[in-house]
């Protein structure tokens, strides 16, 4: 499974990056390819490429604010949660992603 | 520059006296003032509490990351406090906290891109369970810095 994600919190200083680290670690631990873009005070980093998005089986948006560039994910399966969920239960979130992609659309 | 450049050994306390969230924030804010990261404790704490009101800053694993943007911030940095006993705090896993990382970030951050970048890399490390485990076991400031930066 290939996962792309976006993390963005209210202040854009802390939770965004903690969520990124937790999601990437949980995804890798489960044996998936995962890349998480961050949208914080410093701007967008680790920006997802068109290719990464095209190849992704699922998109995880962990955000407390409206993210930039949401239209990039049009037509893809998306799981959307507050950053807290990614920080608190990253493994569960990844497991949920794995469940979602086998469900018929 | 690297993450270690944003972790100042002078703003790390492993002998926190605070027994409550209020005391902990005040104690660490004083450390930031003494080391010239902020100019006004009251203004700074008001901005920190503003963020606290928006939701838990306890991220689980006994760690809290109070933060906010404040005009009282002179330079971007963090104060880190370790306590022996759990302090009650609003957290995602409903445990208390033993490690408090107080972020100091200004309202205007022109020209501060490098420091913000370092701070984001630093924040990212707080999402790593192993780093946190080492952090909470640290006995002195050098140990804390080592846990967070190695």
TrEMBL record, chain A:
Keywords: Kinase, Phosphoprotein, Phosphotransferase system, Sugar transport, Transferase, Transport
InterPro entries the UniProt entry points to: Bacterial_PTS_Sugar_Transport, PTS_EIIB-like_sf, PTS_EIIB_2, PTS_EIIB_2/3, PTS_IIB_fruc
GO cellular component annotations of the record: plasma membrane
UniProt-listed CDD domains: PTS_IIB_fructose
Pfam families, per database record: PTS_IIB
GO biological process: phosphoenolpyruvate-dependent sugar phosphotransferase system
PANTHER family cross-referenced by the UniProt entry: FRUCTOSE-LIKE PERMEASE (PTHR30505), FRUCTOSE-LIKE PTS SYSTEM EIIBC COMPONENT-RELATED (PTHR30505:SF0)
The protein's name in its UniProt record: PTS system IIB component, Fru family
Species in which this protein is naturally found: Terribacillus aidingensis
UniProtKB/TrEMBL annotation, chain B:
SUPFAM superfamilies cross-referenced by the UniProt entry: Phoshotransferase/anion transport protein (SSF55804)
GO biological process: phosphoenolpyruvate-dependent sugar phosphotransferase system
GO terms assigned for molecular function: protein-N(PI)-phosphohistidine-sugar phosphotransferase activity
Transferase as UniProt keyword: yes
Single GO cellular component term: membrane
CDD domains in the record: PTS_IIA_fru (cd00211)
Keywords: Phosphoprotein, Phosphotransferase system, Sugar transport, Transferase, Transport
Residue ranges annotated for the PTS EIIA type-2 domain, each copy included: 5-150
KW Cytoplasm (keyword) present: no
NCBIfam families found in the cross-reference section: fruA (TIGR00848)
Protein name: PTS system IIA component, Fru family
């Amino acid at each position: 499974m290939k996962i792309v994600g976006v993390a963005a919190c209210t202040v854009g200083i802390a939770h965004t990056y903690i969520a990124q680290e937790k999601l990437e670690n949980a995804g890798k631990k489960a044996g998936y390819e995962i890349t998480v873009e961050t949208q914080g005070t410093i701007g967008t980093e680790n920006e997802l490429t068109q290719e990464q998005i095209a190849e992704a089986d699922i998109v995880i948006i962990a955000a407390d604010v409206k993210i930039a560039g949401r239209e990039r994910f049009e037509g893809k399966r998306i799981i959307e949660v507050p950053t807290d969920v990614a920080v608190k239960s990253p493994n569960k979130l990844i497991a949920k992603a794995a469940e979602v992609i086998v469900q018929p659309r | 520059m690297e993450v270690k450049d944003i972790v100042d050994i002078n703003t790390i306390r492993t002998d926190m006296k605070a027994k409550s969230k209020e005391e902990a924030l005040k104690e660490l804010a004083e450390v930031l003032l003494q080391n010239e990261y902020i100019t006004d404790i009251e203004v700074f704490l008001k901005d920190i509490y503003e963020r606290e009101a928006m939701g838990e800053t306890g991220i689980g694993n006994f760690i809290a990351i109070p933060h906010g943007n404040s005009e009282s911030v002179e330079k971007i940095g963090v104060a880190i406090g370790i306590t022996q006993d759990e302090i009650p705090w609003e957290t995602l896993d409903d445990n208390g906290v033993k490690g408090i990382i107080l972020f100091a970030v200004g309202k205007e951050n022109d020209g501060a891109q490098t420091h913000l970048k370092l701070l984001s890399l630093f924040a990212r490390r707080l999402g790593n369970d192993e780093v946190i485990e080492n952090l909470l076991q640290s006995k002195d400031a050098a140990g804390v810095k080592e846990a967070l930066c190695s």
